[in-house]
Design brief:
120 residues; DUF2721; 3 helices; rod-shaped; mainly alpha; DUF2721 domain-containing protein
Length: 120
């Protein structure tokens, strides 16, 4: 056996007799594990926080991008209907609808830019 060193400095170079383990065995398990468990929990928390943050930002950007794509599809449909419409009232309504969708696209683009820039 190679030998060990106890906190009091004894036992170096010699095998440990069982009575030298008495100081270690007398401590309750909670006293031994409390500091190390807290340290491990803090380490895991610190390591995983950026992962959850990036996941949340990525999900938000994905949501905004999907909404922007749907608005673009609606603009395309309304624009196709606008070219085929001959009724003046329907034409005005479709023009108003396309303008509102265009404003929505600008707001979504601004949100995507803001979230993309402030998350990094």
């Amino acid at each position: 056996m190679t030998g060990f060193e106890l906190p009091d400095g004894s036992g170096v170079g010699s095998p440990l007799p069982s009575e030298q383990f008495a100081w270690f065995m007398a401590l309750p398990l909670s006293a031994l594990a409390s500091d190390s468990a807290g340290d491990v929990a803090h380490l895991i928390e610190t390591a995983l926080t950026p992962v959850f943050m990036l996941s949340g930002v990525g999900t938000l950007l994905n949501l905004l991008n999907t909404r922007s794509a749907r608005v673009a599809d609606q603009i395309e449909k309304a624009s196709d209907l606008l070219g085929d419409e001959s009724d003046e009232a329907s034409h005005k309504h479709l023009v108003s609808y396309v303008e509102r969708l265009t404003k929505r696209t600008m707001v979504l683009d601004a949100e995507i830019s803001q979230k993309g820039c402030t998350s990094g």
